[in-house]
């Protein structure tokens, strides 16, 4: 499946939600903006399972997938970890609470920090705590690559439905932090994306979705009403039902994005600013909290500005500039190298 700019737009919305959630003063916080991560999960489930389904017969299925994913995830992630390690020695004050509260380094390296945070029961690691979602994604990659390889599409769809229904039950019996950051507890968002990818590759289901595309536009209203309800009552992350409703709301947006007629302009899905943000969302996501921790104290120290809104605007501008540099000089070139690793189709048996 070729790249759809509309999906980059959804990524842009997701990262904008996360950025506002972490950058706006607490007294001005808009409810549920933390759920930008939920949208990332739905998109990831759809896109990653699509890649795997389209290449399931490749002889280098596992190695090509993992190497290409490593080229996308690891370079900038390792740079962030190296900078963190250097600041621990050189200037730990720039790490904020992470100086005292960071996890053992092996947990970041092995992508198990989500389990480590859950085990100790709190975050308080502002430099690196956003990496819990990367850990969950990596765990999802391993699970999904095995599931796609060894299950027929109908059983993958059945597994997806089962895990979607299991997730809110697990959250009901868990603490909110565990309900937010453990993989099975977040399976509703991820596996809804997988289910859509499976249906999209089943021609009868795809035709049905295309014929009834307006249904998903109308469905936005009840889903949005559910989201609004949780926003009004102040539901926090990790609660049993809120992520379930959010997952269906974001899955509906995903369906609208892939079903939209290519020849018709759309004020949302053709938004170039959101598309730009979406393409640079990985760098923005990894760097936005470290930048806030490092630059806000410097701005105050040198009396450049004492107004919180001005401070955050300045930090955001610097963040976007660095994210652009990261995308052009680090992420995109290394992704290009990763794309040179092609999925190799099995050789055809010679005719006897």
Gross morphology: globular
What is the rounded distance between the termini?
35 Å
Topology as H/E string?
Answer: HHHHHHHHHHHHHHHH
- Count of discrete alpha- or pi-helical segments spanning 4 or more residues: 16
Strand content: under 5%
Extended strand count:
0
Average residue pLDDT: 93
Structural classification: mainly alpha
Unreliable segments (pLDDT under 50, ≥5 consecutive)? Answer: none
Biggest β-sheet strands, sense, barrel: none
Report the radius of gyration as a whole number of Å: 21 Å
* Tally of separate domains: 1
Helix content: over 70%
How does this model look, in words?
The protein is an all-alpha fold and 352 residues long. The chain has one domain. The chain has helices at residues 5-23, 36-54, 61-90, 98-101, 105-109, 113-120, 132-150, 153-172, 176-181, 187-200, 203-211, 213-232, 242-259, 272-279, 281-301, 308-339. Helix 1 crosses helix 14 (272-279), helix 3 (61-90) packs antiparallel against helix 16 (308-339) and helix 15 runs antiparallel to helix 16. The longest helix has 32 residues, at 308-339.
Provide the fold topology:
Elements lengths: L4 H19 L12 H19 L6 H30 L7 H4 L3 H5 L3 H8 L11 H19 L2 H20 L3 H6 L5 H14 L2 H9 L1 H20 L9 H18 L12 H8 L1 H21 L6 H32 L13
Helix pairs in contact: 1-2, 1-14, 1-15, 2-7, 2-10, 2-13, 3-7, 3-16, 6-7, 8-10, 10-13, 12-13, 15-16
Can you summarize this structure?
The protein is mainly alpha-helical. It has helices at about 5-25, 35-55, 60-90, 100, 105-110, 115-120, 130-150, 155-170, 175-180, 185-200, 205-210, 215-230, 240-260, 270-280, 280-300, 310-340. About 70% of the residues lie in helices and about 0% in strands.
């Amino acid at each position: 499946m070729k790249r759809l700019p509309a999906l980059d737009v959804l990524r842009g919305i997701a990262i904008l939600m996360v950025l506002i959630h972490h950058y706006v003063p607490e007294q001005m916080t808009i409810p549920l903006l933390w759920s930008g991560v939920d949208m990332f999960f739905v998109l990831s489930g759809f896109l990653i399972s699509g890649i795997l389904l389209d290449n399931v017969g490749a002889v280098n299925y596992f190695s090509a997938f993992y190497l290409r994913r490593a080229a996308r995830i690891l370079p900038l992630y390792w740079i962030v970890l190296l900078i963190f390690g250097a600041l621990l020695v050189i200037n730990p004050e720039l790490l904020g609470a992470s100086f005292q509260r960071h996890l053992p380094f092996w947990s970041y390296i092995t992508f198990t920090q989500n389990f480590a945070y859950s085990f100790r029961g709190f975050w308080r690691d502002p430099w690196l705590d956003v990496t819990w979602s990367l850990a969950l994604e990596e765990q999802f990659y391993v699970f999904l690559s095995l599931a796609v390889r060894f299950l027929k599409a109908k059983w993958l769809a059945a597994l997806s439905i089962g895990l979607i229904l299991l997730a809110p039950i697990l959250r009901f019996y868990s603490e909110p932090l565990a309900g937010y950051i453990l993989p099975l507890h977040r399976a509703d968002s991820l596996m809804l994306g997988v289910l859509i990818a499976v249906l999209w590759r089943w021609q009868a289901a795809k035709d049905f979705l295309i014929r009834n595309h307006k249904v998903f536009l109308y469905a936005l209203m009840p889903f949005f009403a559910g989201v609004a309800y949780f926003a009004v009552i102040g539901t926090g992350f990790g609660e049993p039902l809120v992520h379930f409703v959010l997952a269906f709301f974001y899955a509906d947006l995903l369906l609208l994005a892939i079903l939209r007629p290519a020849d018709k302009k759309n004020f949302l899905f053709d938004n170039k600013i959101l598309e730009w943000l979406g393409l640079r969302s990985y760098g923005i996501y990894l760097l936005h909290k470290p930048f806030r921790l490092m630059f806000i104290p410097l701005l105050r120290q040198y009396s450049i500005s004492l107004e919180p809104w001005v401070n955050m605007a300045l930090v955001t501008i610097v963040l976007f500039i660095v994210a652009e540099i990261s995308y052009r000089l680090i992420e995109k070139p290394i992704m290009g190298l990763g794309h040179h690793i092609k999925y190799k189709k099995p050789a055809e048996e010679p005719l006897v």
